Amino acid sequence: MKKTIIANLAVLASLSSASAYTVSFINVTSTNEFSVPVVDNAGNPIGVDSGFVSAGTFSVAPVFTGAPTDIQVIQSTFSSFGDGGSSFSNLPSIDGFFDGSRSAPIPFESTDPPVGESVFVVIGNGDSLSSSTEFAVFDPGMVFGTDTAVGSGALDVDVNSTTLTADNLIFGNILENQTLEQTGGLVFEETIQLTGAIPEPSTGLLAALAGLALAARRRR
Length: 220
Hints:
This protein is α+β, with helices and mostly antiparallel strands and about 220 residues long. About 20% of the residues lie in helices and about 25% in strands.
């Protein structure tokens, strides 16, 4: 009996020491029309073992009204959660799809960040957050919790044509009825298209516009 108790305590100790909170994110649970591939601004799918995709938090939650115009907000305020890969990878090895996860210990009953903070999935066209020039940001409407008392806690973010809406894709575009060459002409209901910063008017253009306005006033 004593040996059994000691063995059970050892198992609980190993579970506690190895516990970690895991956020999984995927856009290809199965290759069908409900999957949501990711393409760049030119319409090319993000290749396997390239691109950037990660789950994490924003130091200041992004509030975008209309079309976002500055990707520096994403690059400067997003923090990936825990450890894990950040390039596109998936079991079928098809461009445009990711199946990743990130994990780190979040002690049971902890109230420290990121507990209670919103989870975001950020997708980029570069090999890292800083090298990406085009982005999409998906808000699954989830918040970080904690590890359980004797094991791991988890969140599963599934990006598909049911969960993806214009409201929760807070950066990027949604294309409808797109096909990818690697999938044999399969038509996807929705596709995420990355978008870059919308250039602000140059100083010269602003000066020219001001000159035109002044000329118009003089004619009156």
